[in-house]
Amino acid sequence: MDGLPWHSSHPPANRPAGPPSAPRNVISAINETSVILDWTWPADSGGRKDVIFNVVCKRCWLGPRQCEPCRGAVRFLPRATGLANTTVTVVDLLAHTNYTFEIEAQNGVSAQAPTPCGAQASVSSVPAAE
């Protein structure tokens, strides 16, 4: 680089790395008290190959959009953070409950971004079979 700030005229190989854009095309498939979340890679990886995904679960109520973290009430398979793949299964959801899942893409320079880049999926669980 020439020591000057990045400019659109710089070739892509010379652009400084940045955080990835948000994951795309989030799909949810719910089955009683579990949900499979699937998404596609961000359109922009930020110029890096170390993109990972974190999934945040929130339990929500109708009315003024009020949500709280799911905490230990649900389990993520394989896990909620540091995912290299674009699919996660969430189990042990409560019946008749609304959930919002936020999928965040991060890379090694994401800490420099003012806010994480994410996408959302909202689902409502149905009663478990009796």
TrEMBL record:
It is a single-pass membrane protein. Residues 1-23 are annotated as: Disordered. SUPFAM superfamilies: Fibronectin type III. It is found in: Membrane. Its main location: membrane. Signal peptide: none annotated. Residues 19-128 form the Fibronectin type-III domain. Residues 13-22 have a biased composition (Pro residues). It holds the Pfam family fn3. Gene3D superfamilies: Immunoglobulins. Keywords: ATP-binding, Membrane, Nucleotide-binding, Receptor, Transmembrane, Transmembrane helix. This is Ephrin type-A receptor 3. It comes from Labeo rohita (Indian major carp). The lineage of its organism: Eukaryota, Metazoa, Chordata, Craniata, Vertebrata.
